[in-house]
Design brief:
163 residues; alpha/beta; Glutaredoxin; 5-stranded mixed sheet; 7 strands
Length: 163
């Protein structure tokens, strides 16, 4: 009985503290995202690019708060063709399309991305942010382990671009 109790406690504790599937320096896994504009994005499509991912959904208030700041970030780097800003959403395409009709969000938006989100964001905490460097490695991960800070995301992107 003592061993069973210890095993349950160990399972709960390790599950609570291992929120991320990946750590900085890990290789990005294979993925496939369908964008609202009809494009498909896979791991092969991001080679030699820096990628900023924001996993989110339209009824998540914390997911909507930083859209203006994210739009400013996209605008700041608009002349660079080596950066992709991609926002995989859990919502269906029609919901995302309706959202875009009412709100400007300059990230390329993927729809019905639950399968990819489950790989990147084990505990499904939203919003979650990831930066992938040009070598296909994670350079920044914010998947619910702390309060998301836009400043940290911007600084992390600048560091990746300096390398």
């Amino acid at each position: 009985m003592k061993n069973i109790f210890f095993g349950i406690v160990l399972f709960i504790v390790t599950g609570a503290f291992s929120q991320e599937n990946f750590k900085i320096g890990d290789t990005v896994p294979e993925f496939k995202l369908w964008l609202t504009n009809g494009e498909k994005i896979t791991k092969n499509d991001i080679q030699n690019k820096v990628v900023v991912f924001k996993f989110w959904f339209t009824s998540c208030l914390p997911c909507l708060i930083d859209i203006d700041l994210l739009n400013q970030l996209v605008h700041h780097y608009k002349d660079r063709d080596d950066i992709l800003f991609i926002a995989p959403a859990l919502d269906r395409k029609d919901i995302i399309t309706q959202f875009h009709n009412n709100t400007t969000f300059k990230f390329k938006t993927a729809y019905s991305a639950m399968d990819v989100s489950q790989v990147f964001n084990k505990l499904q905490v939203y919003p979650s942010y990831f930066i992938i460097n040009k070598n296909g490695k994670f350079s920044y991960i914010d998947s619910g382990t702390k309060q998301s800070e836009f400043k940290n995301l911007r600084e992390a992107l600048e560091l990746v671009l300096e390398k």
